[in-house]
Every structure is written in structure tokens, then in C-alpha cells.
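Appendix B, record 7
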Amino acid sequence: MLTELQSTSVPTPIIKKIRGTLPPWKFCTAITYVLLNPHLTTSFEDLTDEPIGQVMIMNTVQNYYIDAFEKYAASAVAGGALFRSIVGGLVPLAAPGLFDNLGYGWGVSVFGFISVALAPAPLFFYKYGEAIRERFTVVL
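C-alpha cells (predicted):
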């Protein structure tokens, strides 16, 4: 028998589809895993949502590279892949020191704070993107 709260809540599949794209959600789940130590299958279940956000971000960024640098699209996508690979290689090197100094709770929180700080970036570029492109023109 469902309680009134259960019957009026948002269906779980909808939440599972959007939570991988929300930086505050990632911040909260990371802290929950560190502090509460849930069962391992819960962690694996949440890992299935992470690629959704990553694919959405990667597809939009690559489409921007292709649209912005039409003639040199392959080089722009390769440059983005190089930057992504460098960051992906440096974060694991810095993480052990971060966790040793701050502990797992605050160490994971640093990544959550970074994602929350970067979340409004699309709105910033939507509002000021034209002025930035006019000021720093790229001649191809």
C-alpha cells in the first residue's frame, strides 16, 4: 500500500535520467557515499547515470568546436581531446595528496564545489558570448 508521499513523489526513472546532469546532485551523492557508506550496488547504480551528463557535455562542446572552426574542425576537436586528456591525467596525480590533506569528505567536496562553480558557465556564455567573440576574433 502506497502512502500519500510515495504516490505524489516524482517517479524514480525521471530523477535517474536527469540527476547525472546536475552538478549539485553529484556533490550530494559524493558526500553521501563518503559519510554513510551505502551498499556497493547503490554506488554501481548511480555510476550508470554519470555517463549521461558526460555525453551531453562532450557532444555540445564538440559541436561548438565544429561550428566555430569549420575549416579546421578536426584540429579543434583534437585540441579539445588533448586538453581533456591532460586534465584527466593530472587529476589522479593530485587526488591522493588532496585526500591525505583534507580527508575523503572534504576532498570529494572540492570536486563538487568546482562543478557547482562551473554550472552557470553556459548562461554566462549565452549572455556575453557574442561580446567575447567580437572582442577576440579568430582569423582562419
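Remarks on this record: The two ends are 65 Å apart (CA to CA). Residues 11-135 form one domain.
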